[in-house]
Design goal:
Layout: E1 7-8, H1 19-29, H2 42-62, E2 69-72, H3 75-89, E3 96-100, H4 105-116, E4 120-124, H5 134-140, E5 145-149, H6 163-173, E6 176-180, H7 192-195, E7 199-203, E8 214-218, H8 247-285, E9 289-291, E10 317-322, H9 327-333, E11 337-338, E12 340-341, H10 354-358, H11 363-367, E13 369-373, H12 380-400
Parallel strand pairs: 1-11, 3-4, 3-5, 5-6, 6-7
Antiparallel strand pairs: 2-8, 7-8, 9-10, 10-13, 12-13
The chain binds pyridoxal-5'-phosphate.
Length: 406
């Protein structure tokens, strides 16, 4: 069977829109164009009904109530609103925030902004697998701590944090807990009540939905979370996010979430199988490859976890370093396959990834890393093509650039 080139294998960066999502959105891009805030006519009512339905879909998927969902332009805005909004609203209680060194820049840069405003931020270091444990969070919390922000799953190495345990610690100590759930939501279990999460950011374009739309969950009771808005205007979204609602985007988000939840477990099994196939073959064919991030779990033939085995990594994530090869050269060599490198992820900068650095990967191996992000459209044939291309490209580059001692 021939595969269609180029192959897209960068689903942590973004995902294509699922055709079912596009179908759901189309009427709202054409016929049903009303402003969801228009209360005086049917155009507005129809738009508002669609927004309500999406709010219900998103809330249900995370075990929240619809009124706790605030639509945003994506997770960057959600992270900013949660972190800046919660810290500023609680400034009188304290000026300390806890986060992790492997967070996305949307979180880290929001924390840096708080530092400029006089807050102190503790950046917890992960273990070699990229995990931050609840005990570290517990030790870092002080009387003046107002917020803990730690991601559900990492976008580079796929590490899944023990969010339920971290949430329990935060709840016990009376500190608000925000999680950037972008990469994990719709892919791994996520239950706000069971995990004691107070604020959670998600984004549609990581879930086969459209770009430029996301949601922030804001807990309404036990405790009621207060946020200072960062956008000011017409008072939409209970005053937390002014601006005319992106109705087609919101409809797309709701549909994307609904589909992801319905297919989540089966998709996780399929992706674990594809990832195992990719990893085992690369390891067998290419010498001097190292795995960045958590070990892969033991799986059954159908991709389900062997009893007693836990997947500490997003099912579609694989991050490998190829000693003696420049990641950029590898990306160029793999021109038919869209993947990303640990040195290119921070747009245009050639700094090695802060995530790989934080887990102790030396700079040369960080520069030699490739992130594979398997997703819904990928097939076994595409994985086999990728294996062959990676093996051939690494071999060729190593011949061209012999590294002393390697
Ligand atoms: C973990 C994480 N947080 C936040 C974001 C930003 O999301 P958005 O593109 O919706 O602003 C991303 C996307 O790259 C991400 O992977």
């Amino acid at each position: 069977m021939t595969v269609k080139l180029p192959i897209y294998m960068d689903h942590h960066a973004t995902t294509p829109i699922d055709p079912r999502v596009l179908d759901a959105m189309m009427p709202y891009l054409t016929r049903v164009f009303g402003n969801a805030a228009s209360r005086s006519h049917v155009f507005g009512w129809e738009a508002e009904a669609a927004v309500d339905e999406s709010r219900r879909q998103v809330a249900e998927a995370m075990n929240a109530s619809p009124k706790e969902i605030v639509f945003t332009s994506g997770a960057t805005e959600g992270d900013n609103l949660a972190i800046l909004g919660a810290a500023r609203a609680n400034r009188s209680k304290g000026n300390h925030v806890v986060t992790g060194a492997t967070e996305h820049h949307a979180v880290l840069d929001s924390c840096h902004e708080l530092e400029r405003e006089g807050f102190e931020v503790t950046y917890l270091g992960p273990d070699r697998a990229g995990r931050i444990e609840a005990a570290q969070v517990s030790d870092a919390i002080e009387d003046r701590t107002v917020l803990v922000t730690l991601m559900l799953a990492n976008n580079e190495i796929g590490t899944i944090h023990p969010v339920a345990e971290i949430g329990a610690v935060c709840r016990e100590k009376g500190v608000l807990f925000h999680t950037d759930a972008v990469q994990g939501f719709g892919k791994i279990p996520f239950d706000l009540e069971a995990m004691n999460v107070d604020l959670a950011s998600v984004s549609a374009h990581k879930l086969y939905g459209p770009k430029g739309i996301g949601a922030l969950y804001v807990r309404a009771r036990r405790p009621r979370v207060r946020l200072e808005p960062i956008l000011h205007g017409g008072g939409h979204e209970r005053g937390l996010r002014s601006g005319t609602l992106n109705v087609p985007g919101i409809v797309g988000l709701g549909k994307a979430v609904e589909i992801s939840m319905a297919e989540r477990e089966e998709e996780a099994r399929r992706l674990r199988r594809l990832r195992r196939r990719l990893f085992d073959a690369i390891i067998a064919e290419v010498p001097d490859v190292s795995l960045n991030g958590p070990e892969l779990p033991s799986i059954e033939a159908d991709g389900s976890l062997v009893p007693g085995s836990e997947d500490r990594r997003l099912p579609g994530n694989l991050n490998l370093s190829f000693a003696g090869v420049e990641g950029e050269a590898l990306l160029l060599g793999l021109k038919d396959i869209a993947v990303s490198s640990g040195s290119a992820c921070t747009s245009a900068s050639l700094q090695p990834s802060h995530v790989l650095k934080a887990i102790g990967v030396p700079d040369d191996l960080a520069h030699a890393s490739i992130r594979f992000g398997l997703g819904r459209p990928n097939t076994a044939e595409e994985v086999d093509f990728t294996i062959g291309a990676v093996a051939a490209t690494v071999r060729r580059l190593r011949e061209l650039m012999p590294v002393s001692g390697a």
